[in-house]
Specification:
- There is one protein chain.
- By secondary structure, this protein is of the alpha+beta class.
- It has one domain: Beta-Lactamase, CATH 3.30.450.40.
- 37% of the residues lie in helices and 24% in strands.
- The protein is built from 4 helices and 6 strands, in the order H-H-E-E-E-H-E-E-E-H.
- Strands 3-2-1-6-5-4 form a 6-stranded antiparallel β-sheet, with helices on both faces.
- Strand 1 and strand 2 form a beta hairpin.
- The N and C termini lie far apart (43 Å).
- The model has no long low-confidence stretch (mean pLDDT 93).
- It binds methionine sulfoxide.
- The site of methionine sulfoxide has 14 residues, from helix 3 and strand 6.
Amino acid sequence: MQDPITLPRTKDRVALFTALMPQVRELLHEEHDPVAAMANVTAALRQTFDWHWIGFYRVMGAELVLGPFQGPVACTRIGFGKGVCGTAWKEERTLIVPDVEAFPGHIACSPLSRSEIVVPIRDSDGRIAAVLDIDSIHADDFSTVDGHALELLCELLQPLF
Ligand code: SME
């Protein structure tokens, strides 16, 4: 049965993402520093959505290293193929995890996180340069609507890496 919360949430999200994209384009306009850009993108997402944790991890050698974020303190480094973030990096694709406890190897930075989405970001050469990681306190909070919208948003960051 359709979760009664899911449908209106999804509809709302389309409208919210539609309003957010021009704002992010404006924030990134003529900005060349990836950290400054990621910082404002996390804040813009935070001002738009009630997600628990929103942040970036950058690829640095064989690890993901914590970048700009909004939310509680988080783990600083994640290995290639580890957790949801390291798996999204390894598989080079967006991962939507409806129940973090059911994801083998999930790294629990906050006990409140119930579901998660991770979107990889490519550099100009097509290599994964970073991931956007978002956690929700609600189970099954992310759909392909969020996935597609966040992929479009992350594509705006590609020229900065
Ligand atoms: N849960 C992530 C770790 C990062 S925190 O959620 C901020 C993972 O399994 O990769």
